[in-house]
Every structure is written in structure tokens, then in C-alpha cells.
Design goal:
Blueprint lengths: L3 H25 L27 E3 L3 E2 L5 E2 L2 E7 L2 E10 H23 L3 E8 L22 E9 L4 E3 H4 L4 H12 L7 E3 L11 E4 L9 E2 L1
Parallel strand pairs: 5-6, 9-11
Antiparallel strand pairs: 1-4, 2-3, 4-5, 6-7, 7-8, 7-10, 9-10
Helix pairs in contact: 2-4
């Protein structure tokens, strides 16, 4: 038999070790369980400062120390004439193609489809340290680089909202608008995903600038 004092000290040591192990595990898995193998961080520089394109401010760069990092990070609240439903955290390089797409594709398409302009978009996600499609064990999402934005809806001057969830298969004018802006985002962005890609994107458009080794794009 061990002395009672020895057992008491032993149990205290075991409990302390368990707490430290739990803390270490939590720190290691911060942001979710994902792989970064083969991912290429985006280029940190950009041609135009987001503050010249809309309401935007430079913020402190992000580094979660697990792969998620945003270099040259900005908080963007609007681009051109389009307001965001919530501030979007992105790397500097995303703002210019997003601005160009909104002004040169989205606005003219809205005029042709509805006879009025878009005044705001619903931002479903921007920077987020998580795996792709939130599937544990998948590769880290481009959201983890601040290199992607998810858009769930467009609001017209009249207040009419065109949502991806309903409009993609909705009325003729909404279908035409959403499919056109989706298709014409390809090229400006390296990845464009919508409801036809998979269930994870049934209610939003995903746009990113994934830095692939072969320079290819994927649009679905």
C-alpha cells in the first residue's frame, strides 16, 4: 500500500498533466482540423489600395500560427457604389478584382435584368480560419488566407433582394442575373463556386484567388 500523502500528490500531478495536455491540444487545433499541404499563400502586394476603391482601412496582419494568415490585411465595408452587409476582412489583392467585377459585371447585368442598380451585397463570409466546406481534415480554405469572399444576396435600389438560395432557380430575371454574374466572375477570380458545384454552396457564391502552381482556374 502507498501512503495516503503519496497518492494525493500523485493524483494532483496527473490532474495537472491532463489540464496541460488539454491546453496544448486546444492550441494545436486552433481554427479547426485541416491540412495545409500543397497550399500556396497569395501574393501580399496589390496594384491598388482598397481605400481608393471604397470604404476600407488597413488592419493589423493576421497570423494564427497554424497556416491561417492574412498578409497586407484590410477591412472593407464597401467598394464603388456597393455597400457590404458586414465588414469583409481580406488580403489587399482581393479588393481590386472584386471592385471590377461589381462595377463592370454586376451593375450592368442588374440594369439589364431589373432596370436598376445594386446598392449592397450580403457578405456571408470573408476571413475565416477553417477547412474547406467546414469538413474536418480537408485542406485549409482560401478563407484562411483572407483570399476569398462568399456572397449570399444582392439588394437593388428598390429594396428587392436577390438571394442565391432562392433566385438561382427562381424567376427568369433572377436566374439570368445570378447565372451571368457567376459565369463572368471566372477569370477575374481563380475559383468561382455556386449552387451547381455542391450542396455546401447552395446558398452563396464563393469567389477566391487561389494561387495554383499551374495558374489554372476552377469555375462551377
Amino acid at each position: 500500500m502507498f501512503p495516503t500523502s503519496f497518492l494525493r500528490k500523485f493524483l494532483v500531478v496527473v490532474a495537472a498533466a491532463a489540464v496541460l495536455a488539454a491546453c496544448g491540444s486546444s492550441k494545436t487545433n486552433k481554427g479547426g482540423n485541416f491540412s495545409t499541404k500543397g497550399l500556396r499563400p497569395p501574393v501580399a502586394s496589390c496594384k491598388v489600395k482598397p481605400s481608393r476603391l471604397g470604404l476600407a482601412e488597413k488592419i493589423r496582419d493576421i497570423d494564427e500560427r497554424n497556416g491561417c494568415q492574412v498578409t497586407n490585411a484590410w477591412k472593407v465595408e464597401s467598394l464603388g457604389s456597393v455597400r457590404f452587409s458586414q465588414p469583409a476582412i481580406m488580403n489587399c489583392g482581393v479588393a481590386d478584382p472584386l471592385y471590377t467585377w461589381l462595377e463592370d459585371v454586376v451593375q450592368p447585368t442588374a440594369q439589364r435584368s431589373f432596370g436598376e442598380s445594386i446598392v449592397s451585397i450580403d457578405v456571408a463570409a470573408s476571413y475565416a480560419c477553417r477547412p474547406r466546406n467546414k469538413r474536418s481534415g480537408a485542406k485549409m480554405s482560401e478563407h484562411g488566407f483572407g483570399n476569398a469572399i462568399d456572397i449570399a444576396a444582392f439588394t437593388l435600389e428598390s429594396g428587392r433582394r436577390i438571394t442565391i438560395a432562392e433566385g438561382w432557380w427562381g424567376s427568369r430575371d433572377e436566374r439570368r442575373f445570378l447565372h451571368t454574374v457567376h459565369d463572368r466572375a471566372c477569370g477575374s477570380f481563380h475559383t468561382v463556386l455556386g449552387p451547381d458545384s455542391d450542396r455546401a454552396h447552395r446558398d452563396h457564391l464563393h469567389l477566391d484567388l487561389q494561387n495554383r502552381a499551374n495558374g489554372s482556374t476552377y469555375c462551377r
